[in-house]
Amino acid sequence: MSNRLIAEILNEPDAYFLIQAAQAALENEKQRRIAFYNDITEQEKAEFINGEIIVHSPVMMRHNNASLLLAQLMKVYAIKHQLGFVGIEKIMITLTRNDYEPDICFFKKEKAAIFTEKQTLFPAPDWVIEILSEGTKERDRGVKFKDYQAHQIEEYWIIDPDRQTIEQYHYAEGKYELILKSAEGHIKSFVMEGFHIPIRAVFDEALNVETLKKLM
What we know:
Number of helices: 7
Oligomer: single chain
């Protein structure tokens, strides 16, 4: 919560009652979150965001292709250099209030070392990638952006499969800094040491194969 918002609440004569009501609402939300954990299945892609259950529609082919092409580059490189764990689509990360299933996420080996084979809920990753769609772009640029930033997730990529662009954000000094937004050139990860790829390799299968060979 920002200092400005705190000051606004404390300036109200009924500040105590406002905070009390917020605490009661959050406790109710907590119970619904527990029910969400019990009700979701492996077949669903669902998220719990600000008290609301969001069930996602099937993705378009271009969304799926970008996700798979990038994930396979990351996975091969991470395995080769023993850097950590790459998760795709159905990895649920649990933040302070909300639960998300990012399109791709990466945990450095220090975090990944304690994961178990039956684990279903994961902590904040070190790097998150979201691929825009009509149904998700507002959340990817809105509540998720704010939440990932608040939890100091070091790196955040937003991929637009329509425009075939990547936006790269890096967490520094309390906020995300936009490093690049481009459809051309190369991109280098801050989190996955040495991971440096052509942006087009996320959208072009032939270039992806060439890049994969170099990474191997």
